[in-house]
Design a protein that fits this description.
Blueprint: E1 2-4, H1 6-13, H2 17-32, E2 36-37, E3 42-45, E4 53-61, E5 67-75, E6 87-94, E7 101-106, H3 108-126, E8 133-137, H4 141-153, E9 159-163, H5 167-180, E10 185-188, H6 192-198, E11 201-204, E12 224-227, H7 235-239, E13 242-245, H8 248-251, H9 257-265, E14 271-274, H10 275-279, E15 292-295, H11 300-317, E16 321-322
Parallel strand pairs: 1-7, 8-9, 8-11, 9-10, 11-12, 12-15, 13-14, 13-15
Antiparallel strand pairs: 1-16, 2-4, 3-4, 4-5, 5-6, 6-7
This protein binds nicotinamide-adenine-dinucleotide.
């Protein structure tokens, strides 16, 4: 079994953002065509009202090189004040012919990049080409990755409007982006509403546990919002926009903004379609006169698809630690020690 740490995972993915976006796109389409199995994520909470949680995402991707696995990811929002990332994760890949685990790898990097790739893919699919302005609400790791990936799909991007409830986080983000993403000008905004007014393409990646944005009336009909943190908008805001999702059954759970809307309305008619329907040409990119909001619950198949890229790269360059004897010999062969 191969063990891959953060360094090997990052080096397998660095510079391959376009490939990651295409892997995510294929996974969405395969899922839509029934070539995947994606059971609901399992949420582990530690106490009522505790913002900390762990999520297990099992998935099976039945494409030309079938693979199965599980991402086990924790979210501890207080970690950032300790100088640690909010999320930490491990991922196991299993052979689909023997079921045996073939690799274990660090997965917070995979998780962040597959999330950013899905956001960039949605922007490329739903939003008008040639965008020069993007807004980011929540200035943490996820939106930093989103900015990197969105820039690949929108090479004309110049202006970035930032808002974070912690102004120091927005300033840190702006400094890092001017170091690592030359050609972009970041400006901090006074509020989320200001970002919506300043940028037609906005990614929301906060750690809000309940709606804090009551209305999206400030959006123009050509705006696209990537609602990655899923719980920021009140049902009235969700009802007023065109809603595109990754998987309707998945995203209408766990008290997301869409789930709250379904609980109030008693139906899910406010969801137009999954992104895969637009990718395959079965649905139009937009509906006339409404801003579009993409809400991706985050499907385990994306993690598995990106982890497979990591494994292939590690094998091709001989990286990682191979643990011989991790799995036992067959019981027929091994001595019992009795
Ligand atoms: N949908 C998906 O597939 C998916 C995948 C990964 C992460 N996420 C979500 O993305 C979010 C961000 O993750 P991260 O790792 O970047 O977290 P992070 O802790 O690094 O950054 C979050 C930032 O949001 C800011 N923030 C909190 N509340 C805010 C508010 N009301 N308005 C503006 N800013 C606010 C915080 O100050 C912080 O700087 C999390 O909610 C996470 O669950 C979604």
């Amino acid at each position: 079994m191969l063990v891959l740490g953060a360094h090997e995972v990052a080096s397998a993915l660095d510079g391959r953002e376009t490939e990651v976006i295409e892997a995510v796109s294929r996974a969405y389409v395969n899922h839509r065509r029934g070539r995947c199995s994606v059971p609901h994520s399992v949420f582990l909470r530690f106490a009522e009202d505790d913002p900390n949680r762990a999520i297990g995402l099992p998935a099976y991707l039945a494409d030309e090189e079938p693979i199965a696995g599980l991402k086990w990811i924790t979210s501890f929002p207080g970690n950032t004040a300790r100088g640690l990332d909010r999320a930490s994760a491990v991922l196991v890949l299993n052979s689909t012919s023997t079921g045996r685990p073939i690799a274990v790898m660090e997965a917070s990097i995979i998780s962040a990049r597959r999330t950013a790739a899905s956001a960039a893919l949605a922007a490329r699919t739903l939003h008008a080409k040639g965008e020069t302005r993007v807004g980011l609400i929540g200035c943490g790791l996820i939106n930093f990755e989103v900015l990197r990936f969105v820039r690949i799909c929108f090479p004309m991007l110049e202006h970035v409007a930032l808002f974070d409830i912690d102004p120091a986080a927005a300033q840190r983000f702006a400094r890092r982006s001017s170091r690592e993403l030359p050609g972009l000008t970041c400006r901090t905004s006074a509020s989320a509403e200001q970002v919506f007014a300043d940028a037609p393409l906005v990614s929301v990646a906060t750690v809000a546990g309940a709606p804090h944005i009551a209305s999206l009336a400030g959006l123009s009909a050509r705006s696209t919002v990537l609602h990655l943190s899923l719980r920021d908008f009140a049902p009235a805001a969700i009802r007023a926009v065109d809603n595109v999702v990754d998987d309707t059954d998945h995203v209408l759970r766990a008290r997301t903004s869409l789930h709250l809307t379904e609980l109030e309305d008693g139906n899910r008619a406010f969801v137009r379609c999954p992104l895969a329907d637009v990718l395959t040409g079965d649905a139009p990119a937009r509906v006339e006169g409404r801003p579009t909001v993409f809400s991706p619950f985050g499907l385990g198949i994306l993690d598995i698809a990106v982890a497979r890229l990591v494994l292939e790269h590690a094998r091709s360059v001989g990286e990682g630690i191979e643990i011989h004897g991790f799995l036992p010999e067959s019981w027929v062969e091994r001595a019992t020690g009795a």
